[in-house]
Amino acid sequence: MTGDVVLEAVGLVAGYRSGRRRSTPVVAAVTAGLRRGRLVCLLGPNGAGKSTLLRTLVGSQPALGGSVRLDGTELAALSARERAQRLAVVLTDRVDVGLLTARDLVAIGRTPRTGWLRSLRRDDLEVVEWALGAAGAADLAHRHVDELSDGERQRVMVARALAQEPAVLVLDEPTAFLDLTRRVELMVLLRRLADETGLAVLMSMHDLELAMRTADEIWLVHPGGRFQAGAPEDLGADGSIASAYAGDDIRFDHAAGTFVTDEQRGGLPVRVDGDDVAVLWACRAAARAGLTVTPSAPHRVAVESGPSVGWTLTGPGGATSTGSGFAALVDRLKDLDRPLIPPDIEK
Ligand SMILES: Nc1ncnc2c1ncn2[C@@H]1O[C@H](COP(=O)(O)OP(=O)(O)OP(=O)(O)O)[C@@H](O)[C@H]1O
Questions:
Q1: Number of domains comprising the chain
Q2: Using a 6 Å cutoff on CB, does residue 44 contact ligand 1?
Q3: 106 φ/ψ angles, rounded to the nearest 5 degrees
Q4: pTM
C-alpha cells in the first residue's frame, strides 16, 4: 500500500500465545491501511476480537504473524518514544490521575516530544492549549480530572492524545460510557479533527449506526475472526454487516440500515420512497411497525418532509391511504389488512 497510508497491517494475525508452541489466533489475515485524514471504525460483535486487533495494531501486544507498519517503518523496530511521537492511544480504562487538572494531564501528553527531564517551553504550552481547544476541552482546563463527567473526561483524554501531535489516533471504544448526545459530539469532534488536521483516526465501537453514518471506512471483524474492510455502504449493501451481526434475537436489516428484533423480522415487505431525511425515518417507522423494507414490494410508502411528514401508502392495485406524522403511519402500517381507498373513489 502506498500514498498517504500512515498505519498499515500486512497479513497480520492477532491473538494469544499460551506456552512456547501453542498459539490461538483471534483475527487473521488483516491487510488494511489507515490513511491521513480518514476516520475508520472497527466493528464486530462481542468477543470477535476488536480489542485484540487494536492492541496488536498499536504494538501493546505482539503479533502472531504478519506485520504492522507506522509511517512505513515496522512498528516493532520503533522505540516506545518514536511510536508515541506518531501514534496516540486512548483507552477506555479509568486511570487514577490523582489531583491533576485537565491542563496538567494534557501537558503530560507532551512527554514523548520533550522527554521527562525537559520542562515545557512556550511552544509546548501553545500545543497544550491548542489540544485543549481542538478537543473542545478548553473550558475544562483548570478542573480536576477526578471531578469530570465521563464525557468531559473523554474530551480531556483526546486532548492529551492530541498534545502528542500524532499522525494516528487510536481509540478503544471511546463512546462506551457516553450517552447518545455525548457519543454524537465525540464522533463529530473526531470527524472534524480528521478533516481539518489530517489526523488518521481508528476507533473501535459498538454503536453500529453511528459508525455507519460517520466513518469513511469500516473495518469489520466477523465472529470467528475473519477481517473485512470497506466503505460503510458497501458492507451494508452486500450484507456483510448483517452477517457479522446475525444473532439469535437481533439482526441488521441492510435494506433499512437499522437493527431489527425478532418480532420485527420477516414482516410484510414495503417499499419506501421520498426525500432523504423523511425516507430514513420512514424506514425506521416501517421496521417499528414490523415490516421489512425492500426496494421492490407490492405496498409502497411515499413520504414528504414538512412540518409534519406527509405520507401516502399505496397498495398493489393502486388504492391509497394518506396521512401525516409517523405515529399515524406506524398505526396504518400495523393494520395493512384494512382496505385502502381505490383510486376512482378518492376525492
Ligand atoms: N489475554 C487473553 N488471553 C487469551 N484469550 C483472550 C485474552 N483476551 C481476550 N481473549 C479472547 O480473545 C477473543 C477476542 O476478545 P476481544 O476482547 O479482543 O474481543 P472484542 O471484539 O473486543 O470484544 P468486546 O466487544 O466484547 O469488547 C475472545 O474470545 C476473548 O476471550
A1: 2
A2: yes
A3: -65, -35
A4: 0.77
